[in-house]
C-alpha cells in the first residue's frame, strides 16, 4: 500500500512535476546513494514504498533489505546514518537517487568498513584479465562494529 | 555464455582482486553511469554479460535494453557515445559502476535531451506533496534526434 501518486501518462511521468515512482513486480525500486558533498556513489540498494516514504518523512535513508526481508534504516546497527539532502528520480521514474550526508562514527556506507561500496576498480578494463584493485582504505573494522 | 570468472567464496567476491560479477536470474546486472569529470550520475541501466564484455573491449558503454530486448550501444542513434574511463563494482559484485566521458554532438545521456536522466528533484522531500522540479535545461530536442 503506497501513498505515492498513481502513475499517469508517459508525458507526465517523464516531463511532469509529480513524483510517480514505479515499484517493480517485487514492490521494489532501485536506489542510488551519492555523497552530497563529493558526488561519490556510496551504495546501491532497494526501497519499497514504505522505506521510500520513511526516507522522506524522517530524512534518514531507509532501504528494504532483500536478504533479511525487512526495513533497514541505514546505520541502525553501525551508527553510520545517512542524512538525506536531496531526492531525485530518473526520466521514467523507475530509479531513485538520493544525495546524503554520512553521519556517525566512521562516515562509512559499506558493511566492509569502506566509505563507498565501490572501493574496487578494474586495473585495465581492456586487458581482459578482470583484475580489480582496491583504491581506498577501510574506515572501520567490521568485526568490531557488527556483533553477529 | 559469459567469459567472466566464476563466483567463488564470499571472501573472494567481497575483498578479492578478481571481477566475479553476479548476473541476476534474468542474466542482467544493474549499471550506474557517472560523469568521469564531475561525478554527476548520468543514467542507470542494465547489462548482460555480452554487453559488459563489449563495454570492456570497445571502451564504449553498451547496455542491454529490456524494453527492446537487444544490445544497445549508447549513442548508436543519437551519436552521444559514452567513452569508458573507469569500471568499478560494489562489495558483493552485483552492481557495476562506470565512469564515462560523454562524447558526441549534445553531451547528453537522456533520451529526453538532458545531460543526466536525473534532471528532477523533489522540491521539499518532507513536505509530503511529491512535487518535482526540473533543475536543468535539455541539450537537444529529442524530436530532432530520434526519428522513429
From TrEMBL, chains A, B:
Residues 43-119 form the Phosphoribosyl-AMP cyclohydrolase domain. Zn(2+) binds at residues 91, 110, 117. This is Phosphoribosyl-AMP cyclohydrolase. HAMAP family: HisI. It catalyses: 1-(5-phospho-beta-D-ribosyl)-5'-AMP + H2O = 1-(5-phospho-beta-D-ribosyl)-5-[(5-phospho-beta-D-ribosylamino)methylideneamino]imidazole-4-carboxamide. It comes from the Bacteria. Binds 1 Mg(2+) ion per subunit. Binds 1 zinc ion per subunit. Keywords: Amino-acid biosynthesis, Cytoplasm, Histidine biosynthesis, Hydrolase, Magnesium, Metal-binding, Zinc. It is found in: Cytoplasm. Belongs to the PRA-CH family. Pathway: Amino-acid biosynthesis; L-histidine biosynthesis; L-histidine from 5-phospho-alpha-D-ribose 1-diphosphate: step 3/9. GO terms for molecular function: phosphoribosyl-AMP cyclohydrolase activity. Mg(2+) binds at residues 90, 92, 94.
Amino acid at each position: 500500500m503506497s501513498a505515492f501518486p498513481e502513475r499517469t501518462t508517459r508525458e507526465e511521468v517523464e516531463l511532469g512535476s509529480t513524483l510517480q515512482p514505479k515499484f517493480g513486480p517485487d514492490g521494489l525500486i532501485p536506489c542510488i546513494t551519492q555523497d552530497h558533498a563529493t558526488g561519490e556513489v556510496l551504495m546501491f540498494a532497494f526501497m519499497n514504498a514504505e522505506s521510500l516514504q520513511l526516507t522522506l518523512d524522517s530524512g534518514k535513508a531507509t532501504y528494504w533489505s532483500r536478504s533479511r526481508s525487512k526495513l533497514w534504516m541505514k546505520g541502525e546497527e553501525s551508527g553510520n546514518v545517512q542524512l538525506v539532502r536531496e531526492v531525485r528520480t530518473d526520466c521514467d521514474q523507475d530509479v531513485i537517487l538520493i544525495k546524503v550526508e554520512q553521519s556517525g562514527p566512521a562516515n562509512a556506507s559499506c558493511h566492509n568498513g569502506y566509505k563507498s561500496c565501490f572501493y574496487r576498480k578494474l586495473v585495465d578494463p581492456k586487458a581482459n584479465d578482470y583484475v580489480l584493485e582496491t583504491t581506498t582504505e577501510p574506515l572501520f573494522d567490521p568485526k568490531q562494529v557488527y556483533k553477529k
